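Rotation project, supervised by the postdoc (A.L.). Task for the rotation student: set up a whole-complex structure prediction and record inputs and outputs verbatim in this book. Inputs entered:
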Amino acid sequence: MNEFEYWTNDAEETAFTMDRRRFLKTTGSGIFLFFRIRDFSFFTQEGPGRPNLKGGPSDFNAYLKIGEDGRVSCYTGKIEMGQGIVTSLAQMLADELDVNIDDVDMVMGDTDLCPFDRGTFGSLSTRAFGPSLRTAGAEARRVLMEMASEKLNIPVNDLATGGGVVFDKSNAKTRIAYAALAKGKKIERTLTDPVVVKKPSEFKLMSKPLTRRDAHEKVTGKAKYAGDIQLPGMLYAKILRPPAHGAKLIDADTREAANVEGARVIRDGDFVAVLHKYPDVAQSALAKIKSKFDIPAPAVDDRSIYDHLLKAAPAGKVVASGGDLSAGEKSSASVHEETYYNAYVAHAPVEPHTAVVKIEGKKATVWASTQAPFGAREEVAKELGFRTEDVRVITPFVGGGFGGKTAHGQVVEAARLARMSGSPVQVAWTRAEEFFYDTFRPAAVVKIRSGITGKGGISFWDYGVYFAGERGSEQFYEIPNHRTTAYNAGWVGGEGSHPFATGAWRAPGNNTNTFARESQIDIMAAKAGADPVEFRLRHLSDAKMKRVLQTAAEKFGWKPAKSPSGRGLGVALGIDAGTYVAAIAGVEVNRKTGEVRVKRVLAVQDMGLVINPEGAALQMEGCITMGLGYALREGLHFQGGEITDLNFGTYEIPRFSWLPKIETHIVDDENSPPQGGGEPAIVTMGAVIANAIYDAVGARVFELPMLPERVKGALHKG
Amino acid sequence: MVETLRFTLNGKPAVVTVDSDRLLLWVLRTDLGLTGTKYGCGESFCGACTVIVNGEAVRSCQTAVKEVKAKDVVTIEGLAGDGPLHPVQKAFVENDALQCGYCTPGMIMNAYALLRKNPRPSEADILEGMEDGLCRCGAHNRIVRAIQAAAKEMHGGL
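Outputs recorded:
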């Protein structure tokens, strides 16, 4: 729905500057197929908080090449940050093209070689890009069969393909390899009419589990990340940072830093940096700068933030409604009004934002950890005053993104310093800088007023979300009278709202909305004296949602009971990126300390056609594990613009000891189009644990993270 | 103080002439070009920089290079060298025990040291031994499985 809210840079609206001829010149002989994203609706949808896309794709936006050596290359502006598309995209292409997967090379995120792409986010790679890639593979296979038909003088209908070879169906010895067909050729095709792709029954690779193709490089230390790029004469830069957002530099005495052997101090107004050929020496030289900042008095902190946000909220906008709320309220036996809160949460990838920039004349080459290489290219061109096409961004492996690397200030800093120093420069943020300059998941508030009839049916639902964004606020239960209102629809916030930058965080908006909705549903189930699974099923008509819930209950061994049953079992449902999720968790709560131990999490997904069940399971497990963090511990500490979390000592992320037993299950839905995989399962984690805590001890926690003292507080209250 | 330090690095003699107070992490990465060892937090919270010094897992971001003088240092690059993958590496591959891969070298080095000390670890031993290694992608359950598989394959020896 709102995937493109990730994109906040309005300047990035250039059409495709990738020059097809230039590409062909650099890539030698072979068969080339140009294609574009088939489903334009992904690119042209508009909505609140989303920049108005000017134009959109006007030319091809991906292509593949079958080379003289028989190797197939797929060029895409998408990047690999752990989500596994380096495997699943190759799997789709190899299957449609009938080649061995080992013969497929993925060329990703290089703005000179790959056509424009808005960025890797929103769980879009498989569902939006995948179908086009498959079609291109099928089209290329058809071209190869036509060429083979001419060469072998056999009608196309009598030919078949397999393992990179076209052969005669009646005599497999009559054959010709793709390599031979591509030899000395330069054939360009542009995909226009969709060709027929394979049916699931014809798949050889798709829907079959495949382990990661990048694993060997990653377990041997050979995989390159931006910080591993070392160029002759390159300097590492460390930049003087303010102690708080909004602080102004009054004075900086850099003499002592400049005296460090080999150190160069660069200054441009408030921008002060130390450069050295060793990053650690640059860091210690930076520490010698004596600086004074004027720090504004903190207006808000991590406790007062919710009151502040509610005051700062703009007028609401109704995003969905039906029936008559007041009639619904009149028919209610009881009405429940609750408020849900969640803290700012950091992306905290283990690889901090890093970039290397090299300038030669009027051209720049950039290596960056980014989820949006083309956006980075635009920003560097702007910073340097270069033409966009004179900047090349290369994206090595990215060490985790989760939405945080759709922003990339480090790239611009490196460009600025490369220009000022005349040397190639690497900027690699420290952990403290990573916490300071993150675009956090926004603190947010959800208010729900809902009612229940004497017969135990939900009578009305009045839902308001503040600052999270509306993704995931669509309620999918059958409720006759309902209204959903978004107060500031986007996760970026607005003037006077957040004290620092916020942005999209894995399944943006949806974690907040699903926590609130599924907690409230449980409250009503408890009021109705109903089993939480049965109560949900009673209010569902969507067959996919019913199926994932029923499957989850069955796989978990759920036995109906009204909550709190003392068993510590919770359930939650959600939809994200087109995927349906049902999760069930089992917890233990220490009544004395408020400590919550998650023992078991089971998640069931309907994600349409699954390309790589292994990769999809990996993403679900990752979502569940990462989701424990925002549910139980992660909440940013700050005083005004000062971020007081500087490292993992105070900002705790999930650890081995937290690990529950994790079970994942994907229901068979191979005839539906593929849906998102990287984000959906994380959305249920707040509510499934909150509901399990309530079931264990009868205490309802309304604020994320559910710290021990909050659980204890809820115990005393309840 | 600038010193010439000799030590064994990935089975071969190494010599560096550096300010001996500099941290091993940066000397490995920049002076010696071994970029498999990663920076994650700089304060030993995450373990991405873990290397093996005389058989022990050590946080190279907290280790002055002078501390490895005359010692035996193994980094991720040296675990298998040019040969086949070490059983721990192989188990990580086969169990898909990684996603973005950035914490992976540190995880593998820590697991290697763990198995050296305790060749037949229980699940609880693995959780405890890996506790101070951070992974943001959430590959933890796979990492545990990989270490169990490696232990089995190594039959209690390295």
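Student's summary: The first strand of chain B starts at residue 2 and ends at 9.
Supervisor addendum: Residues 87 and 154 of chain B are 7 Å apart (CA to CA).
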